[in-house]
Amino acid sequence: MSETHVEAFGSYARRCGAVFLAVVCGTLIMVGASYAPLASRPLVIGFILAAASVNAFLVAGYLMHLITEKKMIFAVLALTAFLFVVLMGLSVWASRDVPAILAPALK
Amino acid sequence: MEIAYTVHPRPDTGVYNAKLGMWLFLASEVMLFGGLFSSYILLRAGALPGTWPSGWLSVPLGTLNTIILALSAVTTLLAWYSCKSGMFDKFKLFQGLTILLAVVFLGIKSYEYRDKLTHYEVELKNGQLADGHLVRREASGAVVLHGRLVQSRAELMDGRKAHGERQELTIAKADIVRMQNYGPAHNTFLALYFTLTGLHALHIIGGLVVMSYLWGPGSRMWKTNPERFTNRVEVAGLFWHFVDLVWIFLFPTLYLI
Fold it and tell me: What ipTM did this prediction achieve?
């Protein structure tokens, strides 16, 4: 094991440690936000999901090395992301109809 | 016959075959969990006001599990980097740590499941509800719960609100109309909780089996074909990071929102 390898390993470990700390901070921010006495519930939910998305970006981008990945992988993921967004969009769109369906039960 | 492109990248894709295969598999996994998250959105949006529980899960335990999984994502990456740098001893250390952290995660999850499965809601003949953890069943058929009495189910929906002191309640068999634990059949929220976290736990177990193999008998390949072994560790790591990613969204969805 050469000294260069040990140094490179140390530098890589520090970078991973920084990502880990950022994810922990993001998690604690989410937990804190869930206890925050804010009147707007949708705002709290939006903030928590935004913090979760940042954590997900850190894991996917840095720990899965997605930011330096090959075009082929991006092509696969772009299609997946498109289908996922369509699926979630349909779910949110369909959920807007729910109150009308439930209206008689709510009376 | 030798399998092609297990070590070097294919010229047309730019990556070795196992890596592309793993990313394709993860893409299908995104849609699997996506379907379940979609069900969650629809069922939650369709729930009648005041019927969707909140604060029923332990936030400290969920936070701890999030940190444990994030730490295991780092150790699995360091295990791969150790192989890449030719430091097999460090690979053994970090892969071993990843396995240990995965076991701790599952231990905490099991504790949470046990907590839910021993938690009962008892409907009484006088219309009240007794809610708490089962202490014992007596020979007479009476049950002893450590919990509280409430007038309606609506009082139980917000787990974060103070509900008064818990006490030991002895309920005679004749007073019980219905008794049900907080299992998947209790309500829609718990059905989703057990489905989503159960599927995630199955992924953890799957990852655990693969990583244990690479740490144990599978590590023999290091002596014959270290580059291929390193790629195997990388591909297993990609799966592990995906499992972490799913948890990053499961935790706020089920525990916080």
Answer: 0.90
Q: pLDDT per position in chain A (107 positions), as tens?
A: 566 777 888 999 999 999 999 999 999 999 999 998 876 888 899 999 999 999 999 999 999 999 988 888 999 999 999 999 999 888 888 877 766 555 555 55
Which residue has tokens 């000294």?
Answer: A3
| Rounded Cα gap, residues B246 and B196, in angstroms | 10
**pTM of this prediction?**
0.92
Residues 67-106 of chain A whose Cβ lies under 8 A from any Cβ of chain B: 70-73, 76-77, 79-80, 83-84, 87-88, 90-92, 94-96, 98, 101-102, 105-106
Amino acid at B171: I
Residue in this structure with the two tokens 């090959």, named with its chain if needed: A70
Backbone angle region of A65, left / alpha / beta, with phi > 0 → left and psi within -120 to 50 → alpha: left
Instruction: Report strand pairing: B119-124 vs B143-150.
Output: unpaired
